[in-house]
């Protein structure tokens, strides 16, 4: 599977390789696009705007060295201190950007990146 290209985003959607998704997405190392498991953070913090350690563990996979985090159209999403510490411990560079900017970062990143994109706020 080739590395997906993020085409565009707007409030409530993201377009990847010409296909529109109307939910948050996770792009795996192999290029597989999956629905974000927001409940992993929501059950801990009551919101999906704070990434929990549990969600960071789910997102991280062997070989990933970069996490590109699209923080929403207005940049409302952030890592919890526990998630940040977990990713740092595993030597993963985190690039947080509002989702429109994160798409550009994703498209320029290498094959060792995973992407997590929030599509609203």
Description:
With 121 residues, this protein is an alpha/beta fold. 27% of the residues lie in helices and 32% in strands. α2 packs parallel to α3. It starts with 5 loop residues before the first strand and ends with a strand.
Write the topology of this structure.
Elements: E1 6-10, E2 13-16, E3 19-21, E4 25-27, E5 33-35, H1 39-45, E6 50-51, H2 53-59, E7 66-71, E8 78-79, H3 81-89, E9 93-97, H4 99-108, E10 113-118
Helix pairs in contact: 2-3
| CATH class membership | Alpha Beta
Q: Helix segment count? A: 4
Q: What is the overall shape?
A: globular
Determine the CATH topology: Hypothetical Protein Mth938, Chain: A
Oligomer: single chain
Rg, please? 13 Å
Classification by helices and strands? alpha/beta
Q: How far is the N terminus from the C terminus?
A: 31 Å
